[in-house]
Amino acid sequence: MDNNLFKKLDNSEIWELRTLFSGICYRLFAFWDTETLVVATHGIIKKTQKTPQKEIQRAEEIRKEYFNDKNNVL
């Protein structure tokens, strides 16, 4: 995996996909369900160097809800 494009955020199960398009930094937050399934939670246009903590928390909540719903179906 290219660490410049996809990296695991500290103290989290969330990964950040980073890309630059037309001078704008886009960030897509995601997590792994299985070895081959990546689930994207949401994306932002990043305006600062540091990833906003509220966006990481939002992704963690979506992850928790995803696995809770998945376990309730099984």
Protein described:
The protein has 74 residues and is an alpha+beta fold. The chain has one domain (6-73). The chain is built from one helix and four strands. It has one helix at 53-73; strands spanning 6-8, 15-21, 24-32, 38-45. A four-stranded antiparallel beta sheet has the order 1-2-3-4, with helices on one face. A hairpin with a 5-residue loop joins β3 (24-32) and β4 (38-45). The longest helix has 21 residues, at 53-73. The radius of gyration is 13 Å and the shape is globular.
CA gyration radius, whole angstroms = 13 Å
Q: Could you say which overall geometry the principal axes of the C-alpha atoms support?
A: globular
User: pLDDT below 50 for ≥5 consecutive residues: which ranges?
Assistant: none
Assembly type = single chain
State the strand order across the main sheet: 1-2-3-4
Number of domains: 1
Number of helices: 1
- What is the SS-derived class? alpha+beta
Strand percentage, roughly? 35-45%
Kindly state the number of beta strands: 4
Query: SSE order, as H and E?
Result: EEEEH
Euclidean distance between termini CA atoms? 31 Å
Largest sheet data: 4 strands, antiparallel
**Helicity, in percent?**
25-40%
What's the pLDDT, averaged over the residues? 90
